[in-house]
Amino acid sequence: MRKLLFVLAFAGISVASMAQNEDATEKYSVSTNSFWSNWFIQAGAQWQATYFAGEHGEGFSKSPLKSFRSNPQASVAIGKWFTPGLGLRIKASGIWGKAAERSYKFWNGQGQALFNLSNMLCGYNPDRVYNFIPFAGAGVARNCTDNLYVMGLSVGILNQFNISKKVAVNLELGWNRMENDFVAGGTAVNMATRFWDSHTNVLYAEVGLTYNLGKATWNKTPDVDAIKALSQSQIDALNAQLADEKAEIDRLKTMLANQKPAPAAPAVTKSIKEFITTPVSVFFNISKTDVANPKDLVNVKALAKYAKENNSNILVTGYADSSTGTPAINQKLSENRANQVVEELVKMGVSRDKISTAAKGGVKELGVESPVSFDRRATVQIVE
After folding, report:
1. What are the tens digits of pLDDT across the range 247-299?
2. Which domains does the chain have, with CATH numbers?
3. CA dist., res. 206 & res. 172, Å (int)
4. Kindly report the CA angle at 335 between 286 and 283, in degrees rounded to 5?
5. Closest Cα partner for 104 from 113, 114, 112, 94?
């Protein structure tokens, strides 16, 4: 029993260590669930064939279908998945056994590590129907008829077919290798030193069901890099808008400083006209045609209102930055950005026949001191 506890403890530590490594890799990008999530129970019916260690040299047929070595069994198990690829279960099986024409009652308890290779090699997919799950473990078995306890090892393959988020059908093939004294008389018969004949071997095929308890799926971790990139693009768009507005303020200050005295009314009229005809910028993320920040459309809406009230024409000019993409791609990108802004103007009530467009392709218009992202824009202005 001490050996069993040592083996199970070692298996548990190994699986926990491997689970930490698995969560650290990009392929297993899922959030860690609580301890009470991803538990399952299983029940199944087996047909097993026992190869008794003591039958070596006795001339028994090796066929697993012979009635003197095969019998139906039942099994139950409870387990937990610690990650989409690694889990543990405790499984009990048995009832009736046969070995070399001897019948006996027994049970076999195994602690097993499960390896879902479908998730480990192909990535986690909550909608996957079939999962290929090898397993290996160790435990103890008891021959109730002869009152014998032995240690045992187990390996096998669990083929799992999901029919819902909660229920799966199992087809399991396994091998249990017991110590050679599992059946009374095993050490008194002509024993072989060969691998197969030196121990009692049990082969089985099992059909059963798995029922998932509580939460059975895994949430994907947020794409932190994508969130950071989106936030940075929004910051760049705001900075570009501020740079445009600052440049326009400086231009207006210079214009007002150099303006010659004139009658009050014409000066006011001219200033209003100059302000109205100032281009308004709408910014885009790299290689995108969707407006990066809906706040950019606030100034466009004010300009659209003026155009409708004064029956003015509007020019929309699209740009891309010259530091990325080919000229052909940038030309098409600038056209699409201009057209996107046109659609926004139409939604604001501007007649499409009052809008004209231009596409400048890849440019570097805002100077070497401005970030390259500032050139990914479209401008909207009133024209005569």
Report:
1. 878 877 887 777 665 555 455 455 555 556 678 888 888 888 888 888 888 88
2. 2-213 (2.40.160.20), 224-383 (3.30.1330.60)
3. 5
4. 40
5. 94
Q: Which residue stretches of the chain have pLDDT < 50?
A: 1-28, 186-192, 265, 268
Token duo for residue 295 = 């706040």
Would the pTM of this model clear 0.90, i.e. be above it? no
Distances (CA, A) of 215 to 224, 231, 313: 24, 32, 59
CA distance 325 to 215: 46
> Amino acid identity, residue 64?
P
User: Which two three-digit tokens encode residue 285?
Assistant: 């993320």
Q: What is the pLDDT of residues 125-146, one digit of tens each?
A: 888 999 999 999 999 999 888 8
Angle at 275 between CA 271 and CA 276, to 5 degrees: 115
Report which DSSP code applies to 267. H
CA distances from 382 to 293, 315, 334 (A): 22, 6, 19
Please provide the DSSP assignment of 152-217 as one string.
EEEEEEEEEEESSSSEEEEEEEEEEEE-TTSSTTTTTS----STTTTSEEEEEEEEEEEEEES--S
- Calpha distance 177→188 (Å, rounded): 19
Question: 48 CB contacts (<8 Å, ≥6 apart)?
Answer: 70, 71, 73, 97, 202, 203, 204, 205
Rounded distance, CA 296 to CA 238, Å? Answer: 8
**Residue found under tokens 């405790």:** 90
Partner residues linked to 158 by β-bridges: 133, 172
Q: With beta carbons less than 8 A apart as the criterion, state whether 373 and 302 touch.
A: no
**358 SS3 class:** strand
Closest CA to 184 of 284, 97, 253, 276: 97
Question: Which has the closest alpha carbon to 276: 304, 240, 296?
Answer: 304
**Per-residue buried b or exposed e for 182-191, using 16+ beta carbons within 10 Å of the residue's own CB:** bbbebeebeb
